[in-house]
């Protein structure tokens, strides 16, 4: 059981590879390096949102406000841009601080007011929608932040900047989860909050960190999405809510908390993007395409996602 | 005389929700005060109609969450129910059509349940995939809004008279109460909270989960049927927003994410809160920005109230 | 073979290739109390899980009511009249006491559960096992001892022909245990076949007629109880001679007080006054669920509490959070390891390190080699055998308890709050734990020992406080602590609180 | 006398704007035009207050909110429908109470209301497809980008386009997509198609920000952009100019909202208003593109550049047969 559990990320990776190879043979363009690279670029946004989501889910919560935070950060960037800030660094830091702050507020509601994470983050998403109506379409200026533009489109050495950012962040998140005390506390909190608390884990601080990290990751993801799209808009974050949760669960992290790894979310994100790409090139009615999509997800899940037996 | 064991148990389960009931009641009073027409026949009918589909999907979601599951396919199932009703009613008549709707929900629900329970896949992702499959089916059956519902059915369910709808709601709640008081109902709680204990106590855990999914699917398509009747037609994407709203209602209502904890009353109160809040904000003349912000705050406050009041619940 | 109610013949079971039972046979007969003994991890619970249909054996067969089967389902077991009091309780936390007692076997009327019949029957059974109070309370609100009583009532509800009890008394006090023994004798007289597992030798020798001893999954004895001595028992279970269970008493209490509170109220506890000195072992006794646990939790900062005056470890005031308590050097070992002590799905190693994560202030990376050394040392100290990367839920109940205790050792806490620390622990390990407590005391640590196992209070403690209905009703110094005096105080028979 | 309006309602009128979802920028711009028109009409003493609801994307909530508007006895209700059919009954109920109901943008199928301000979605699709077929000389491989499936605007535009494309056997549809009317998902879908389709001659985009996404996809993959249809989304218009493609854009002008408010007041004020108010489909071509881009800075970057409007313009459309 343990060995099987441990290899869930591996299984998901294998599934991705098999899908790529099969699809590559079926359609030569699909398996070309630029296309694979493009899919990785798309996956990097889901992957970053999924990183925060993984941390939160492992810590026994769930973050339903990720979509709104991603959108918020794309809309807020122009508002935080000043003319003296020629490198755009201040704006970028400002956006990251803002998104982290939103995450921390989630954490406060959950740890101090004891509001259920689903309710707190859903309410936060609603709250942010109201804020977005105020902010959007107002004084927005065209994106000319050099850092964000570079992140979204540069390909140093033929490798996309956003993928590199993703790789670096993945490394950090993996280290955080599996090699730091804080990471261990996330697992403890998710596995059994009561036992964790009686064993001296500071539940409030740990909860706060988890949601803060999720906010930060959403901010980063928002910057990437903005750079790749050249333009932010209200609703740009919408696809990432279900995608991040799906990537987390496809990667073998238990939605009930306490078990999992970001190492599974990585192939999970790539798998989602890949299936979406596959379905796009299939010529079928929209209804049929949805059916195919669902069936593929379910089928691939059967290969990689079975839970351990009860007895 | 001491109240009987049954009522004592019920009372204990309810006590934790008093703050939520309080908030809901307060909002209802405010609504009635802002709009006295609420207490007319038609006013009550219209309000009940707004609430009814959300109440049904909240029940559907609650049943699953009590067994430790969750469904992201609620919205698609509502759409499917609406579409099946609107496309078949003309040809087959209302009775057959309604039976078809219920059968569609039962079958899809039971199938999802079987996948979750027997193949041991996480409910959240199975139902996410299911939402695409079911939503796709709805689109295939009816690609563009249309179809029709027999006018008499619309009039009975969604006319100016609340009797039938309220009756139906009461019937469902009574049905649920009856089910809960059967061994199968308690099995739902046990299988959700502690499947090992349930198994050791001789409960058929898998069957219980599949039954929960089936009932839940049927409630969703029933909601779809009602939406079709309310609108007089079918729309293949009408249900989309019900998924998140059903979860919000249920969690607001104190149903735990880990299974076995919570009550149907709570879930219904949660759905009522989400419904009445919209009307109250309208009659207070709030602009959309304020509506969003107020909605976020009301939801958090309704849940945080026990803590804010200094009352301590077991961790 | 005259009448055999339930028998296992030559059963074997392995978990992931590790053999746990190897060709074990056991035979339960009506009107006989059969003891099943063995160290932690010997395979006792596994065997009874097979007998009751919760697990299927890899090989071997079962004889039930004259029929031979290769395995049972829980439903079949129930039909055959087999009921089990599980060691890891099989209760549903959010359901009421009554609903749990009847779970899976409700009497129904017109399809509905007959709640009034259930109320009557549950009340009857609760009276029988000595559980008082409202039957509509959910299990999650009950202390462990009372849960154990519910679990027993649940087994009795099924009118068993075969009753299997897996450490039913591990958190019961002397009084409840006595009541249970009387009950079991009555069942025996009525022809029920009983299988009894316990690590409390005294009980076993009193109650049982026949004994099977398991060692490392193999049967090492199957014989009548008559004529057995405790030493012989230990030899059979452990394979070598036993020393005395309890170390010789020798107070290590110093003058310096580490806890001095008055007017403490928390949960059930009302207006309690308490002092604790360095090097002292202070016992906490009484019937189950009289507020002892709340008292410990309050001192640990894990439960809202207030006190008229309080000094703890030199600082004024109670601690108000667990982290603050840990910082001051207070540690707590809960009784309900599954719910409060352990992360069941996580590795043994991870569980042992838990408070260290909590303490690490720097964000530096964890060092695997140091962690490994630390946990290996703890495992050796407490004789937890095997691979430490296994999930802790794969350990036997007793070994889980050791892990829950072990995790605090590296912290060198100044005050140890122990809630039934030897619950479900085998004799050999109990002995080691007792020696350890003595050593701690000698090193100047202060210990509060809440125990349901009265001999522990008698032999280990400098003083024993007895609680009843949330009040401290008696304080007994070492010499005056006896089983009788504790029970008397707990029942309110003794006069007011005696001076120390 | 206009349909629904009973004549017992006296100015100044109260207007309800039943929005399906106020967060997207198109909706925000539309609400702005309604607000300014209402302010204008208030000055004229014709409007007393404007009440705005937001159904958060749910047709069911929209029904509930329209019902509340009926309960509050608003004089007029402006609707951008979340579903072409779902609002039929509640709209009829409003009509029966003498409330002027005006539907615009996403229209309802029903005719039991005061007026529908119609930009014909089918015609939209037909014109776009005709332009594309002509531009490609009736021969070539195209992608068709649709809005979300199951939504009437999207389905109707597509139906119109298909009608035309059937007449051009030389035009081959390589693939169709369905995405929300947003640029990022469109970019993703088109990029995926670019890799599997080596030869694409045109992109028949049927709306919103889809074309912007498509152009970005071509640009980012280093493919030469191709003739493309689209809508007046600012980013698309800017990219159109930048890439120098042959382009065509229709427009669902945001001032349809303002016009709805205007029409409602006219109807309430006793002027005859036909149930079908046709607005000719405004089109942007290579020739008129600069005039739109010249005003770009007045519009949000993620918004739509609509043509100027005035009450006189509305009046002229109303007068049209
Ligand atoms: N589900 C499981 N997975 C893996 N190993 C298990 C599992 N259950 C039990 N074991 C192993 O089987 C062995 C026997 O366990 P069992 O619970 O039967 O011991 P026990 O005799 O009841 O001990 P105790 O007195 O501590 O309760 C132990 O080594 C334990 O680690
Ligand atoms: N969901 C939870 N589960 C378990 N323990 C929790 C939970 N939330 C908080 N705690 C911990 O419980 C302890 C006590 O919580 P409690 O709410 O009583 O603290 P408090 O300081 O009195 O709260 P407040 O500051 O809101 O009055 C805190 O140390 C906190 O870390
Ligand atoms: Mg055991
Ligand atoms: Mg406090």
From TrEMBL, chain A:
Entry's Gene Ontology molecular function annotations: transmembrane transporter activity
Keyword Cell cycle tagged: no
Species annotation: Acidisoma cellulosilyticum
Cellular compartments annotated: Cell membrane
Keyword entries, A-Z: Cell membrane, Membrane, Transmembrane, Transmembrane helix
GO cellular component, one term: plasma membrane
Pfam family, one: BPD_transp_2
Keyword Protein transport: no
Residue spans crossing the bilayer: 36-59, 90-113, 120-143, 163-187, 208-228, 240-258, 265-285, 291-308
Name recorded for this polypeptide: ABC transporter permease
Membrane topology: Multi-pass membrane protein
UniProtKB/TrEMBL annotation, chain B:
Regions that span the bilayer: 20-39, 51-74, 118-143, 163-191, 203-229, 241-260, 267-286, 292-310
Location(s), subcellular: Cell membrane
Keywords attached to this entry: Cell membrane, Membrane, Transmembrane, Transmembrane helix
Highest taxon of the lineage: Bacteria
GO annotation, cellular component aspect: plasma membrane
GO MF entries: transmembrane transporter activity
UniProt membrane topology term: Multi-pass membrane protein
PANTHER family: ABC TRANSPORTER PERMEASE PROTEIN YPHD-RELATED-RELATED
Listed name of the protein: ABC transporter permease
Protein's organism: Acidisoma cellulosilyticum
TrEMBL record, chain C:
GO molecular function: ATP binding; ATP hydrolysis activity
Every ABC transporter domain range: 6-241, 253-494
CDD domains assigned: ABC_Carb_Monos_I, ABC_Carb_Monos_II
Keywords: ATP-binding, Cell membrane, Membrane, Nucleotide-binding, Repeat, Sugar transport, Translocase, Transport
Gene3D superfamilies per the UniProt record, alphabetical: P-loop containing nucleotide triphosphate hydrolases (3.40.50.300)
Protein name stated in the entry: Sugar ABC transporter ATP-binding protein
């Amino acid at each position: 059981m343990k060995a099987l559990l441990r290899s869930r990320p591996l299984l998901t990776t294998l599934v991705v590879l098999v899908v790529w190879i099969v699809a590559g043979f079926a359609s030569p363009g699909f398996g070309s390096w630029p296309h694979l690279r493009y899919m990785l670029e798309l996956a990097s946004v889901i992957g970053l949102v999924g990183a925060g989501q993984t941390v939160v889910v492992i810590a026994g919560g769930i973050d339903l406000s990720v979509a709104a935070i991603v959108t918020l950060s794309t809309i807020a960037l122009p508002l935080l841009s000043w003319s003296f800030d020629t490198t755009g660094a201040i704006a970028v830091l400002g956006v990251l601080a803002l998104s982290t702050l939103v995450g921390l507020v989630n954490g406060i509601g959950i740890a101090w007011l004891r509001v259920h994470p689903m309710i707190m983050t859903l309410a936060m998403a609603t709250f942010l929608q109201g804020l977005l109506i105020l902010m959007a379409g107002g004084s927005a200026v065209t994106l000319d932040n050099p850092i964000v533009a570079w992140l979204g489109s540069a390909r140093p050495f033929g490798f996309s900047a956003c993928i590199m950012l993703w790789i670096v962040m993945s490394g950090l998140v993996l280290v955080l989860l599996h090699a730091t005390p804080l990471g261990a506390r996330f697992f403890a909190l998710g596995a059994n909050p009561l036992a964790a608390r009686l064993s001296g884990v500071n539940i409030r601080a740990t909860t706060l960190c988890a949601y803060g990290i999720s906010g930060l990751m959403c901010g980063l993801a928002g910057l990437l999405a903005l750079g790749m799209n050249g333009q932010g808009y209200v609703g740009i974050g919408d696809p990432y809510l279900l995608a991040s949760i799906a990537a987390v669960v496809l990667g073998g992290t238990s939605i009930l908390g306490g078990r999992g790894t970001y190492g599974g979310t990585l192939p999970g994100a790539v798998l989602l993007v890949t299936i979406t790409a596959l379905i796009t090139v299939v010529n079928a009615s929209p209804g049929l395409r949805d059916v195919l999509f669902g069936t593929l997800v379910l089928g691939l899940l059967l290969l990689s996602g079975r839970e351990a037996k009860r007895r | 005389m001491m109240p009987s064991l049954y009522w004592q148990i019920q009372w204990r389960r309810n006590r934790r929700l008093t703050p939520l009931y309080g908030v809901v009641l307060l909002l209802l009073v405010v609504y009635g005060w802002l709009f006295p027409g609420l207490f007319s026949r038609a006013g009550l009918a219209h309000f009940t109609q707004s609430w009814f589909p959300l109440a049904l999907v909240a029940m559907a979601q609650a049943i699953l969450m009590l067994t430790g599951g969750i469904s992201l396919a609620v919205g698609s199932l509502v759409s499917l129910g609406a579409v099946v009703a609107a496309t078949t009613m003309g040809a087959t008549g209302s009775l057959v059509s309604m039976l078809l709707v219920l059968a569609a929900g039962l079958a899809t629900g039971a199938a999802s349940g079987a996948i979750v329970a027997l193949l041991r896949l996480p409910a959240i992702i199975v139902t996410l995939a299911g939402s695409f499959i079911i939503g796709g089916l709805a689109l295939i059956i009816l690609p563009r809004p249309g179809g029709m519902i027999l006018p008499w059915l619309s009039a009975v369910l969604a006319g100016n008279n609340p009797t039938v709808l309220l009756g139906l709601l009461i019937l469902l709640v009574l049905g649920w109460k009856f089910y809960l008081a059967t061994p199968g109902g308690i099995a739902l709680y046990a299988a959700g909270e502690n499947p090992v204990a349930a198994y050791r106590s001789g409960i058929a855990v898998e069957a219980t989960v599949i039954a929960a999914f089936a009932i839940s699917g049927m409630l969703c398509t029933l909601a779809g049927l009602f939406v079709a009747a309310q609108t007089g037609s079918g729309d293949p994407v009408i249900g989309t927003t019900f998924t998140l709203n059903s979860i919000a209602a249920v969690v607001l209502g104190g149903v735990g994410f880990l299974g076995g904890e919570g009550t149907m009353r709570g879930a219904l109160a949660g759905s009522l809160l989400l419904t009445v809040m919209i009307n109250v904000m309208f009659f207070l003349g709030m602009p959309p920005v304020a509506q969003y912000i107020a909605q976020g705050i009301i939801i958090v406050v309704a849940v945080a109230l026990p803590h804010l009041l200094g009352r301590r619940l077991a961790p | 073979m005259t009448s055999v109610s339930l028998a296992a013949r030559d059963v074997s079971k392995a978990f992931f290739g590790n053999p746990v039972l190897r060709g074990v046979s056991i035979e339960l007969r009506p009107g006989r109390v059969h003891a099943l003994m063995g160290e932690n991890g010997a395979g006792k619970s596994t065997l009874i899980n097979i007998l009751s249909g919760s697990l299927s054996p890899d090989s071997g067969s079962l004889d039930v009511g004259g029929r031979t089967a290769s395995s049972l389902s829980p439903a079949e077991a129930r039909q055959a009249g087999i009921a089990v009091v599980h060691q890891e309780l099989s209760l549903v936390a959010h359901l009421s006491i009554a609903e749990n007692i009847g779970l899976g076997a409700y009497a129904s009327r017109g399809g509905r559960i007959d709640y009034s019949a259930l109320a009557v029957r549950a009340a009857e059974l609760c009276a029988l096992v000595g559980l008082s109070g409202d039957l509509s309370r959910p299990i999650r609100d009950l202390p462990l001892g009372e849960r154990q009583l519910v679990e027993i009532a649940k087994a009795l509800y099924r009118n068993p022909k075969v009753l299997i009890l897996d450490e039913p008394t591990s958190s019961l006090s002397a009084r409840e245990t006595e009541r249970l023994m009387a009950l079991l004798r009555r069942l025996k007289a009525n022809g029920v076949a009983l299988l009894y597992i316990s690590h409390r030798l005294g009980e076993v020798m009193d109650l049982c007629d026949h004994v099977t001893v398991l060692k490392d999954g193999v049967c090492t004895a199957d014989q009548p109880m008559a004529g057995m001595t405790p030493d012989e028992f230990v030899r059979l279970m452990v394979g070598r001679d036993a020393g005395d269970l309890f170390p010789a008493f020798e107070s290590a209490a110093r003058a310096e007080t580490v806890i001095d509170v008055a007017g403490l109220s928390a949960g059930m506890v009302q207006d309690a006054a308490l002092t604790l000195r360095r090097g002292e072992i202070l016992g906490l006794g009484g019937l189950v669920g009289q507020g002892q646990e709340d008292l410990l939790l309050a001192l640990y900062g894990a439960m809202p509490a207030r006190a008229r005056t309080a000094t703890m470890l030199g600082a004024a005031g109670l601690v108000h959070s667990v982290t603050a308590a840990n910082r001051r050097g207070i540690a707590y070992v809960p009784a309900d390891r599954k719910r409060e002590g352990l992360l069941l799905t996580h590795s043994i190693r991870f569980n042992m390190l838990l408070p260290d994560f909590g303490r690490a202030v720097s964000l530096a990376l964890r060092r695997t080699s140091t962690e490994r050394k630390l946990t290996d040392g703890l495992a050796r100290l407490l004789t937890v055998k095997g691979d430490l990367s296994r999930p802790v839920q794969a350990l036997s109940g007793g070994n889980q308890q050791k892990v829950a205790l072990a995790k605090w050792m590296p912290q060198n806490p100044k005050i140890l709050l122990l809630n039934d620390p030897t619950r479900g622990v085998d004799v050999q390990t109990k002995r080691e734990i007792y020696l350890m407590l003595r050593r701690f005391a000698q090193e100047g640590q202060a210990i509060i020992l809440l125990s349901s196992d009265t001999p522990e209070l008698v032999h280990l403690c400098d003083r024993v406080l007895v609680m009843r209905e949330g009040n401290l009703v008696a304080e007994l110094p070492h010499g005056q602590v006896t089983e009788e005096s504790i029970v008397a105080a707990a029942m309110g028979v003794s006069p007011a609180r005696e001076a120390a | 006398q206009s349909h629904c309006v009973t004549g017992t309602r006296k100015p100044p009128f109260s207007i309800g704007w039943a929005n399906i979802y106020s967060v997207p920028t198109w909706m925000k711009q539309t609400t702005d035009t309604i607000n300014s028109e209402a302010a204008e009409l208030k000055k004229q003493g014709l409007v007393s207050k404007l009440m705005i609801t937001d159904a958060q994307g749910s047709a069911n909530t929209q029904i509930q909110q329209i019902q509340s508007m009926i309960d509050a006895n608003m004089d007029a209700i402006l609707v951008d429908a979340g579903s072409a059919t779902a609002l039929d009954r509640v709209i009829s109920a409003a009509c029966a109470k003498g409330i002027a109901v005006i539907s615009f943008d996403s229209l309802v199928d029903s005719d039991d209301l005061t007026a529908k301000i119609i930009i014909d979605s089918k015609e939209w699709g037909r014109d776009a497809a005709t332009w594309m077929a002509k531009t490609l000389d009736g021969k070539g491989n195209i992608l068709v980008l649709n809005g979300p499936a199951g939504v009437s605007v999207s389905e109707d535009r597509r139906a119109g386009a298909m009608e035309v494309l059937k007449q051009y056997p030389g035009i081959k549809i390589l693939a169709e997509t369905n995405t929300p009317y947003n640029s990022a998902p469109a970019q993703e879908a088109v990029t995926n198609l670019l890799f599997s389709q080596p030869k694409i001659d045109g992109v028949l985009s049927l709306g919103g920000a889809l074309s912007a996404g498509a152009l970005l996809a071509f640009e980012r993959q280093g493919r030469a952009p191709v003739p493309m249809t689209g809508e007046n989304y600012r980013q698309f218009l800017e990219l159109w100019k930048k890439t120098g493609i042959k382009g065509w854009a229709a427009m669902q002008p945001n001032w349809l909202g303002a016009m709805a408010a205007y029409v409602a007041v006219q109807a309430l004020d006793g002027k005859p208003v036909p149930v079908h108010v046709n607005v000719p489909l405004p089109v942007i071509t290579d020739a008129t593109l600069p005039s739109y881009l010249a005003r770009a800075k007045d519009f949000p970057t993620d918004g739509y550049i609509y043509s100027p409007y005035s009450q006189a313009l509305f009046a002229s459309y109303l007068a049209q047969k």
